[in-house]
């Protein structure tokens, strides 16, 4: 729910401008959203469109020293995929969770449903992940959605405690933007839209 202060000052144009200018941040530093702010962010995710109310998504939050444990898991998984990984590649995998103060693993649980194919469940989870980014940005934070081979690696999935019917939709790196936002590209809707 919007605070009275915000609801008085926000115009429709502010909201449209916000939605039209979400901008990923590759470099993120502390602070990350607080527990109370994360509650708000996840409330945004819980409004993702969801065919048949399957609620196919869940999220893991990883912060502080647990990011180092995630780094170890990512390095271990890399070595299983590629025993010849170089020292540089291993270090990159190990340090990748340290790129932000908070990593949210966005997870989808795929189940059989007579009307909702698995692709729709993944799409719903993607919408929920997007809503996490939007919610974080609305609170003045920034983030970036990353995947890469680790996101599809069974060793990573089981190390994170996922069940056999679950998949990783993305690693959402969240924190405070370090540096200026990148320039938004000039895109014309007409290039992507036609009348049928
Ligand atoms: C499913 C998905 C996976 C992504 N994986 C990566 C990734 O592994 N590495 C990366 O640099 N960007 C990745 N991106 C792209 C970034 O999240 C981001 O969208 C891109 O840098 C463009 O920035 P923008 O969102 O500000 O336009 C991914 C995006 C999506 C939707």
Summarize the structure.
This protein has seven helices and five strands; from the N terminus they run H-H-E-H-E-H-H-E-H-E-H-E. With 196 residues, the protein is α+β, with helices and mostly antiparallel strands. The protein has a single domain (35-177), classed as NADH Oxidase (3-Layer(aba) Sandwich).
Beginning-to-end CA distance, first to last residue:
38 Å
In terms of DSSP E residues, the strand content is 15-25%
Low-confidence runs? none
Taken in chain order, the helices and strands follow as: HHEHEHHEHEHE
Structure in words:
The chain has helices spanning 4-9, 12-20, 35-45, 66-81, 87-95, 118-138, 154-159, and strands spanning 28-29, 57-63, 102-109, 142-146, 166-177. With 196 residues, it is of the alpha+beta class. The model has no long low-confidence stretch (mean pLDDT 95). The chain binds flavin mononucleotide. Flavin mononucleotide binds next to β4.
Provide tags for this entry.
NADH Oxidase; binds flavin mononucleotide; globular; 196 residues; alpha+beta; 7 helices
Break the fold down into its secondary structure elements and pairings:
Blueprint: H1 4-9, H2 12-20, E1 28-29, H3 35-45, E2 57-63, H4 66-81, H5 87-95, E3 102-109, H6 118-138, E4 142-146, H7 154-159, E5 166-177
Antiparallel strand pairs: 1-5, 2-3, 3-5, 4-5
Helix pairs in contact: 3-6, 4-5
The structure holds flavin mononucleotide.
Flavin mononucleotide (FMN) is lined by residues 23-24, 144-148, 170.
């Amino acid at each position: 729910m919007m605070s009275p202060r915000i609801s008085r000052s926000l115009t429709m144009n502010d909201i449209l401008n916000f939605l039209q200018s979400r901008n990923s941040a590759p470099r993120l530093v502390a602070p990350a959203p607080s527990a109370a702010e994360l509650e708000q962010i996840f409330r945004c995710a819980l409004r993702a469109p969801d065919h048949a109310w399957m609620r196919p998504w869940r999220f893991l939050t990883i912060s502080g020293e647990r990011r180092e444990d995630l780094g170890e898991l990512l390095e271990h998984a890399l070595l299983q995929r590629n025993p010849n990984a170089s020292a540089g590649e291993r270090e990159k995998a190990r340090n990748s969770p340290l790129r932000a103060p908070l990593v949210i693993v966005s997870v989808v649980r795929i189940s059989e449903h007579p009307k909702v194919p698995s692709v729709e469940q993944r799409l719903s989870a993607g919408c929920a992940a997007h809503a996490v980014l939007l919610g974080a940005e609305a609170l003045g934070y920034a983030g970036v959605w990353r995947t890469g081979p680790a996101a599809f690696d069974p060793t990573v999935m089981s190390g994170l405690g996922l069940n056999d019917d679950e998949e990783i939709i993305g690693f959402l790196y969240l924190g405070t933007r370090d540096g200026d936002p990148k320039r938004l590209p000039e895109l014309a809707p007409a290039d992507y839209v036609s009348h049928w």
